[in-house]
Amino acid sequence: MKPLISIIIPVYNVENLLARCLDSVVANLTLQCEILLVDDGSTDKSGEICDDYASRYGLTVFHKPNGGLSDARNFALDRMKGSYVAFVDSDDFVEKNIFATLYQLSKSENAEIACCSFWECNGTSKTKVSAGNATQSNVQFLKSLAEKDGYKNVVMWNKLFDARLFDGVRFPVGRIHEDQAVIHLLAYKAKKIAFTDKAMYYHTNRGDNISTSSNFLRHFDDVQALLERAQFYRNNNLEELLPTVEKQMFELVSFYKKCARHRGGYSKEDVEKISRKLAICKQFCVQFFPSMTKRQQHERNKLYTLSPLDRWQLLHFDKIRKSVFFRAFARIKNGKVPNGENQ
Questions:
Q1: Strongest mean pLDDT among 12-16, 218-222, 242-246, 262-266
Q2: Which of 173, 204, 235 lies at the terminal end of a domain, its last residue?
Q3: Rounded to 5 degrees, what angle do the CA atoms 208, 250, 313 make?
Q4: Is the CA virtual torsion 319, 321, 324, 325 positive or negative?
Q5: Which whole-number Å values give the CA distances from 305 to 168, 277, 283, 301, in the listed order?
Q6: Distance of alpha carbon 219 from alpha carbon 261, whole angstroms
Q7: Which of 42, 81, 129, 295 is at 20 to 30 A from 250, Cα to Cα?
Q8: Number of alpha carbons in the 13 Å side-chain half-sphere of residue 1
């Protein structure tokens, strides 16, 4: 019998969290589901744990060389059999009946995408990220991607998709922020997106702080996804959505550039890579928004250009940050007296 829902779980080196994830997912097996575990070349005991759960609960396991999250998802998409598809990250966990709830929501609202609220978990604390109770057209949903809390609509893992939306759509291999690169493609093909405010997914924040990540340059994949989205909007006569992309890109690059300057320690080669990526953003503004005001043009030119001071900070600020003077200044700024002396 053809499964109703395919649940795709990429797995890579999460032996300490995997059982929690799988226990929560197999609790949903009362629904007609297939669970696809993709062991993406794990070097710990994750693969063995997958095999153990497969033997006990009839899950499907694939072991493959490491190719990254996108490659693992695509591998499962090419082999899944369900009419609907959901994604679960292997360090997260879910409520019982999450998939039944999203399926019922999808059917009752005639929506190709169903979304739920979720919990953002940091250590022992958790914060609810609300999806609300509503339905949206595809254009309304696409506009929401640029809102302040729009990331809740970007991520794959709090959603159930009509599997047909993935016809011709796959995740970009070798890039991070893969959800950002495909969500607009999926939403555009959907006529309606439905939401429930029930928080049924627990997302684990593992502390990949963008301001300290050694792979900071890779975070520009987020900007690349926005550039591709802008081109997609233009190609599909959705020009009214272009300003939302420009706004989002301006905010992202402002944040990324600030983080990069305060991190410092980049090589000259990496600084040139950053400069080239910023130049692409600048060209995007020239190409897509020729009617910008002079003030807007000045702001964008300043942001998308590395000044001599920017370059110096990117190369050397890590040394300043580690200096005795800088640490003493930081302590004073935070209301602490150096050496623990009282005044």
A1: 12-16
A2: 204
A3: 65
A4: positive
A5: 37, 10, 11, 6
A6: 14
A7: 129
A8: 7
At residue 2, the pLDDT reads: 78
In this prediction, residues 188-198 reach a mean pLDDT of: 97
**Residue 315 has what pLDDT?**
87
Give residue 125's domain range: 5-204
Backbone torsions φ then ψ of 74, nearest 5 degrees: -60, -40
164 shares a domain with 77: yes
Taking the complete model, does pTM exceed 0.85, yes or no? yes
User: Does residue 307 lie in a domain region?
Assistant: yes
Q: Same domain for 124 and 263?
A: no
Q: Can you say whether residue 54 is alpha, beta or left, with left for phi > 0 and alpha for psi between -120 and 50 degrees?
A: alpha
| Identity of the residue numbered 15 | E
Number of neighbouring beta carbons within 10 Å of residue 198: 17
If you average pLDDT over residues 242-257, what whole number do you get? Answer: 88
- For 134, list phi and psi in degrees, rounded to 5: -165, 175
- Does residue 224 lie within any of the structural domains? yes
For the chain, how many residues are written? 343
Separation between Cα atoms, residue 142 and residue 223, nearest integer Å: 16
**Portion of the chain with pLDDT greater than 90, in percent:** 61
Residue pair 195/134 in contact (Cβ under 8 Å)? The answer is: yes
Q: What is the pLDDT of residues 144-177, one digit of tens each?
A: 998 878 889 999 999 999 999 999 999 999 988 8
- pLDDT of the residue at 341: 46
15 and 105 co-located in one domain: yes
Domain match, 199 and 244 both: no
| Count of domains observed in the chain | 2
DSSP assigned state of 69 = H
Question: Does residue 82 surpass a pLDDT of 90?
Answer: yes
The answer on 62 and 10 residing in a single domain is: yes
Beta bridge mates, 202: 93, 119
